[in-house]
Write a structure and sequence with these properties.
Elements lengths: L24 E10 L7 E5 L11 H11 L10 E7 L3 E2 L2 E2 L2 E7 L6 E6 L5 E8 L16 H15 L1 H8 L4 H8 L2 H11 L22
Parallel strand pairs: 6-8
Antiparallel strand pairs: 1-2, 1-3, 3-6, 4-5, 7-8
Helix pairs in contact: 2-3, 2-5
Length: 215
């Protein structure tokens, strides 16, 4: 049976609400960038984006910061479900827009007030996204090596600089290179744990050389 959906894909350099007319889409982030001062400052690239990243509006950027934090390097490997909301207005006219319904890496639903217009705010809720399922008869695909490394790094940082340092000291060079990408995020997490010493010559706090190995 012929599929009509490819013929209605908007010609654009970004994901549009019209791309989601056929239904919600769950994406996995491959890269996230910020261009301060641009009209659309955030670009979320994802698997299969065909060069058309998701550029969240102000309200959804607030959702992202609330759920995943301010450091976009931490978004890589995480997933979210996007859907078309026909009630989104521009210039007082309902033109439709992209909203986030579910996100990975959150333990419970998150609700925050978002501006509907200059005078009105409404509660908006994002729910946890279930873990990825393994293909039928195949090997579990819950986490690839990169995703697992970043997850464990954040868990170790939450325990403090010493625990993170012990774990970092046992990493292979290629694995350490992956973790280095979220250095700023780890430093902030370790600082919140209350025992983060000054950075060493490599940029990271002076972590001494985990309990969980990475394949």
């Amino acid at each position: 049976m012929s599929d009509l959906s490819p013929t209605i894909t908007p010609k654009s350099d970004q994901l549009n609400a019209d791309d989601l007319i056929t239904g919600p889409r769950t994406i996995k982030v491959t890269k996230a960038t910020v261009n301060q001062g641009a009209e659309q400052p955030a670009s979320i690239f994802f698997e299969g984006d065909n060069g058309k990243p998701y550029k969240p509006g102000l309200s959804m950027r607030r959702v992202l910061v609330r759920a995943w934090g301010i450091h976009v390097s931490a978004y890589v490997g995480r997933r979210m479900t996007l859907y078309r909301d026909d009630t989104v207005k521009f210039g007082g006219v309902a033109v439709g827009g992209i909203r986030i319904s579910h996100m990975s890496d959150i333990d419970e639903s998150i609700t925050l007030p978002l501006s509907e217009n200059r005078k009105t705010r409404k509660p908006f809720t994002v729910r946890p996204l279930p873990a990825e399922r393994a293909p039928s008869g195949g090997k579990p695909t819950g986490e690839d090596t990169r995703t697992k490394l970043l997850r464990i790094a954040r868990e170790k940082a939450a325990l403090g600089a010493a625990d993170l340092g012990d774990w970092l000291g046992k990493l292979k060079p290629d694995h350490r290179a992956v973790v280095d990408e979220i250095e700023a995020d780890l430093r902030d997490i370790a600082a919140e744990a209350g025992d983060c010493p000054p950075p060493d010559d490599d940029g990271f706090p002076g972590f001494a050389p985990a309990d969980e190995e990475v394949a």
